[in-house]
Amino acid sequence: MKHTVKILGTGCPKCQNLTKMVKEVIAENQVNASVEKVEDIMDIMQYNVMLTPALVVDEKVVMKGRIPSKEEILALFN
Question: Hey, is 45 helix, strand or coil?
């Protein structure tokens, strides 16, 4: 199954760091997933997210307002 991952954030350093970490986890563990960066505030608000960065996996908000560890990110795909 291919996962759809979205990183919600306006481009701040935390959002950039989360994007980098997610891409690293996907590559290191050969996870079948696509990554999309969502920076438009109106698009972000559709997910009812007030704290960024936020992580959306398969259209479900799984984390917001913090940067998870690589282990936490990997667990989202299992």
Answer: helix
CATH class of 3-75: alpha beta
Which pLDDT tens digit goes with each residue over 6-42?
999 998 899 999 999 999 999 999 999 999 999 999 9
Phi, psi (5° rounding) for residue 46? -65, -20
Listed by start position, the domains of the chain span 3-75
Which one is catalytic: 11, 12, 29, 34?
12
* Closest listed residue to residue 55, CA positions, set 42, 46, 64, 47: 64
* Residue 15 designated active-site: yes
76, amino acid identity: L
